Amino acid sequence: MTLTFAGEGPTRSVVVEDLRATMCAGDRDVSDGVGTIEGASIHVIGWGGCAGRPQDRAVDVTLTYDPVAGTLGSPGDSSGTFTWTRGAVKPDAFSGTWIATDIDGSSMTLGFGGSGMTRDVSFVDDRTTYCDPVAAFSAVGTGTIGSVLGDGRLIKVSLHGSCAGGASPKDYVEKYKYDYVTDTLVGPLTPLEIGGDPLPQTVTWRRG
Predict the structure, then answer these.
(1) pLDDT(78) > 60
(2) Residue-level pLDDT at 59
(3) Extents of the domains making up the chain
């Protein structure tokens, strides 16, 4: 299991992952929420669920920090409590830069900034047929991290962009899926209203 905190100050975003959860029949379980720090404890409230299913299980738990051992303790199963120790920092699915080659051979860059469930997003395609004549296209906006879907997690981005020189402005919404197993992004996905299936022009993004 992994327990990840993000943000600064007395309020943090919290994500808990169990890769082989008993309650999920051995599938992955993911919970996320908001934690409030009080003294040596952090009280976390949020929602959890098995991979590919709605997050329909309420989370309300307090973790206590042991400054001597450098560990966190939290309520566990009937055998007692869980003890969490510091591990290697896991790459954040929606931080940093991702690169991909479009189906037309152009190079694309997708960047995520900030922390928490809402991220700053930037997009650049060095040569897109959307522009007439073909030119570079760039966009900025925000992304909202969404639900767990199968072996990954979704992010829905709302962007405003234009072709080089400011021509052909465009507002659009897209959805991408982060794959926990391969550490890749896939997208854009459609339709947006449901889980999302790959479009014919969907590409795979890798960390830049």
Answers:
(1) no
(2) 92
(3) 2-85, 96-207
